[in-house]
Amino acid sequence: MKKDKTKKPHPTIAERAKKRFIELPFREGDPTELMAYLMARMSIARNAAKGLLAHRLVYVNNKIETKHDAPVRGGSTVKISREKDRKEFSSQLLDIVYEDNYILVVNKREGLLSISTVREKERTAHSILSEYVKRSNKLHHIFIVHRLDRETSGLMVFAKDEKTKKTLQDYWHEIVQDRRYMAIVGGTPDPAEGTIRSYLKDNQSYITYSSKENNGGDWSVTHYRTLKSKNGFSLMEMKLETGRKNQIRVHLQDIGHPIIGDIKYGDATSPIGRLALHAFRLHFFHPITGELMKFETPQPIAFKKIFNPRTEKKTEKVVEKDINKESE
Predict the structure, then answer these.
(1) Does one domain contain both 211 and 277?
(2) Domain shared by 166 and 186, yes or no
(3) pLDDT, tens only, 75-98
(4) Over pLDDT 90: what percentage of the chain?
(5) Is the predicted pLDDT of residue 153 greater than 60, yes or no?
(6) Cα–Cα distances in angstroms (integers) from residue 232 to residues 94, 245, 326, in the given order
(7) pTM value > 0.70
(8) What distance in Å separates the CA atoms of residue 260 and residue 35, rounded to the nearest whole number?
């Protein structure tokens, strides 16, 4: 009997990437707390489930989840990474919300540079993540895809190899489906929602300025709406059509309502001790698998203090529900 010499096609990079996860779709009657869910669906003991959570191998809706009582419900996507050698990560300056062999999505705190510059060399999001991936393999690297200003908090994506970085940067506008920020400004914008369009260009002092006429700068478009106005402040949501340096900060200055805590662009008032700008939503197609990845972070507790001073001790979970409701 002759052997079939027909060669099986090699799996694509996307197929190999997807095989690095065990998917556990929710079924009717499954437990609704993550620990119990893992034990039931994988037929494993409590200690084994705790180990998966402790080693950051469990993803719920594409976000790393470590809480044993995290909710699981119909529509939830639960995946287990096969990367058993992943090292634990801990930093007070940023959190990893998603990781695979190609990308890292993090929630950066305010005050942390995205990457060092010629003028500023210090601890950055890039250096922290570089140290983390090198603990598994000294040859591993991290590549920056886009930046957030030092005083801006929120979601950023990093690449783990140069090819993935190039794909994300070259096709950024096609890959990113929804990118939004929230900010707090003084007063109440009128109109409550609209679109700001202008050319943005740096002067010799590296200050970005705006012009309605073509000044040789980059054409920039920001859509905004007011979510809440109270106590002399307004909570704003911005959706970017373009992503220029300091775009939101300059555009809100253009309409006469600069972000509070923004010394550089018009409002040094800072009742919360920081620039009130946060990148809370990032939806994009995975550069390798093509899967639509959706990430959102809760409204910073400091923002909540401005509108409800007595509720500053509320948990992040409660705040997240509030902002999601307001954004609908």
Answers:
(1) yes
(2) no
(3) 888 888 876 655 567 788 999 888
(4) 47
(5) yes
(6) 31, 28, 19
(7) yes
(8) 41
The residue from 58, 85, 112 where one domain ends is 85
Out of 124, 150, 170, a domain closes at 170
Based on the domain organization, do 101 and 157 belong to the same domain? yes
Same domain, 48 and 75: yes
In this prediction, residue 1 carries a pLDDT of 52
Question: Taking each helix axis from N to C terminus, what angle separates 34-42 and 46-54, rounded to the nearest 10 degrees?
Answer: 120
CATH number for the domain spanning 237: value is 3.30.2350.10
- What is the rounded CA–CA span in Å between residue 270 and residue 275? 7
Indicate whether 120 and 27 sit together in one domain.
Answer: no
Which amino acid type is present at position 9?
A: P
Q: Which of 149, 254, 262, 267 is catalytic?
A: 149
Read off the pLDDT of each residue in 218-240 and give the average, rounded to a whole number.
95
CATH of residue 45: 3.10.290.10
pLDDT at 118 over 70: no
For 25, the domain range is 12-85
Q: What angle do CA 224, 256, 210 make, to 5 degrees?
A: 80
Strands (E) in the chain, as ranges, are 21-23, 58-60, 63-64, 78-81, 94-99, 103-108, 143-144, 153-159, 176-186, 193-202, 208-211, 218-230, 233-240, 277-285, 292-296
Structure tokens of 63?
A: 């976000």
Q: Look up 149 and say whether it is catalytic.
A: yes
Looking at the structure of the chain, the number of domains it has is 3
How many Å apart are CA 48 and CA 125, to the nearest integer?
A: 32
**pLDDT the model gives residue 59:** 85
Q: What is the CA radius of gyration of the chain?
A: 22
Phi, psi of 292 (to 5 degrees): -75, 115
Cα→Cα distances 160→16, 102, 104, 134, Å: 16, 5, 7, 11
Query: What local confidence, expressed as pLDDT, does residue 206 receive?
Result: 84
- Report the number of secondary-structure helices (H) and strands (E) in the chain: 9, 15
Same domain (yes/no): 260, 132: no
